[in-house]
């Protein structure tokens, strides 16, 4: 089971004892009384397991193309902004991102590019792929920011993402 964030990890840890109890008891169908006993054992086991488990820290900011599956490939990011600051565009270019691999086909659909951090999620559906020799190779995601609030929110995400992935900033000449 793949868990992408601490809340998802807690859900995964909570499910593990249930599966163990069901397999250990051979319970395919539970009677109402047995169901309550199993449920109580699962709650206690899940709490114990969560306390004993090593802390897994999710990155403070990450990008997903499939909900719940962080993209490990770090993109090149280009920013432009209008002179009056009313609009801005960020172009993310991924070279051979992992979500294009055949192994990730079972993980879900690609429905957009999701920029996630502690403040929430920024989403764009402007995602395109460039094919090389009949296979997708380069993926570009474009985030359009309208107004100073959206620009500032995006920049807070980028500061966290840059810190988590060792990115630097260089101004265009």
Automatic annotation (TrEMBL):
One of its GO terms (biological process) is photosynthesis. It is a peripheral membrane protein. GO terms for cellular component: photosystem II. InterPro entries: Psb28_c1_sf (IPR038676), PSII_Psb28_class-1 (IPR005610). It is found in: Membrane. Pfam families: Psb28. Residues 1-29 form the signal peptide. Keywords: Membrane, Photosynthesis, Photosystem II, Signal. Belongs to the Psb28 family. This is Photosystem II reaction center Psb28 protein. It comes from Strombidinopsis acuminata. The lineage of its organism: Eukaryota, Sar, Alveolata, Ciliophora, Intramacronucleata.
